[in-house]
Amino acid sequence: MQDTMTAAGQKVHLELYRHRNSIVNDAYDRMVSGIHLHKKSSGYSTFTVTGCEPGAGATTIAISLAISMAISGQKTVLVDTDMKKGSNHKRLNQEIEFGLSHYLTGEASADSIFCDTNYGNLKYITCGQVHDNAVELLCSNNFDKLMAYIKDNFDIAIFDSPSLNATVDASILAARTDAVILVAEQNKTTTTQIRASKRELDNVGANLLGIVLNQVDKKEYKRFLKHYDYYKRMVPDTRKK
Questions:
Q1: Which end of the chain is more exposed for a tag (fewer CB within 10 A), N or C?
Q2: Which structural domain range is residue 206 located in?
Q3: Number of domains observed in the structure of the chain
């Protein structure tokens, strides 16, 4: 393993796409604004995105948030930390040779795990190969080195984590980053699950930045956003007449 770190990137060029709905993108832009304010006031730069339960949409939120941060001008890295699944089980990662677990176990240098994307300000690190003891890797000296490098070379780091109730990895990662964004799904995630997730984060001393309610119906969103109709008018009607 090389001690010198560079972010040259892998030859794989990963294509990521932002949501086409301007109303959805407005919601992400609001998150970006909040993160910018916390970065300026508190110096936050590393964020764990995790769900209250599997399937809440944390990975989708993490990807879209990372893209939005990059578009806003922030040099951003998105890190897939679910090392218990491995790249072969994820469509997004299948063409990428080296990832997070490869570096943490000493099987790859840091410069080999950063992947270029179609956004100039956005790099991506896949989870790598399956590793049974992900907690050990997240608590390792190599992870400390990687975190220090990321903080020195990127404005924002988004860590896509497994859900809190699925594995202890999420709690470890949450405690090691500056703040946590918790994802819940409307009409699925219960108040009990949200409270349990909050207690878990409190128990490890993690800093909960906020909760994202995913899969919100447009009618519900209209209730939350006073000027919803303004954004609705900005979206052209593409339905066939």
A1: C
A2: 15-230
A3: 1
Q: Which amino acid is at 179?
A: A
- Please list, residue by residue across 197-233, b when 16 or more beta carbons sit within 10 angstroms of its beta carbon and e when fewer do: bbebbeeeebbebebbbbebeeeebbeebeebeebee
Q: Are 33 and 84 in contact (CB under 8 A)?
A: no
**CATH number of domain containing 98:** 3.40.50.300
Query: Which among 196, 166, 206 is positioned nearest to 59, based on CA atoms?
Result: 166
48 touches 175 (CB < 8 A)? no
